[in-house]
Amino acid sequence: MPRFKADLHIHNASDPREIEYGPFGLVSPYTIIDKAFEKGYEILSFTNHNNLHSDSNITNYAHSKGILLIPGVELNIEKKHVLLYNIKDYMEIDSFESLRNYRDESSLIVAPHPFYPTGSCLRDALIEYIDCFDAVEYSHFYTRFWNPNKKAVCISDHFKKTIIGSSDTHCIAQFGSTYSLIDATELSIPAIIHAVKNGNAEVVSEPLSVLRIAWIMSVLGMRFVHSLVTGRRFIRNQNDHTKNTSKSLR
């Protein structure tokens, strides 16, 4: 059976939330596709925040490189992040209860970075709503001395869920150290989803070096600071506008 190299969790410069965080480290989808081609990937998914990636030009470009793009989105559900694949009417999902209705043979639902120390990670909600998920993510962001993925592996083993490796790329330095090898009958969306659901995926991963962690943190840190500054500037401009409007009405 053919084995395909895949990364199913990638953000790019068309992600509205990425744009909000500023220009530092933003990666064009074309750049990611070129990099994936160099590294021998056959499957990618651009999982932008609350926004299904659906650009036919990019899909065709990936196809020209022999890469299958699976439509995906990282959706905010009850303030938690969930990865959805091949679900067109995803905007109707507003709770974990409603998420259950969209788990079928044609879709794939994955728990991303569930036990990392941020508020958007599922943590206990993964166990509470484990029946909503087909797979659990093994994320790239860890070292030899710190690895929140260990609990994700334990949970996936206990509940017999597939574990898949992915990068959660926000800057290019994150891409390439963690991925999945998926055994599927063919390179098509239905075949890949069927393979993952049935546990035919192997995680390939290596811990990040201190230098690489530092580089990634510096890029993401600059973007976070940029978002704070621009956000405050926006609020200040809105306040000034309100004051000027009030004066003109007197």
Automatic annotation (TrEMBL):
UniProt xrefs under SMART domains: POLIIIAc
A Gene Ontology molecular function term of the record: 5'-3' RNA exonuclease activity
Polymerase/histidinol phosphatase N-terminal domain ranges (all copies): 6-79
InterPro entries named in the record: PHP_domain, Pol/His_phosphatase_N, Pol/histidinol_Pase-like
A Pfam family: PHP_C
Protein name per UniProt: Polymerase/histidinol phosphatase N-terminal domain-containing protein
Organism encoding this protein: Candidatus Auribacter fodinae
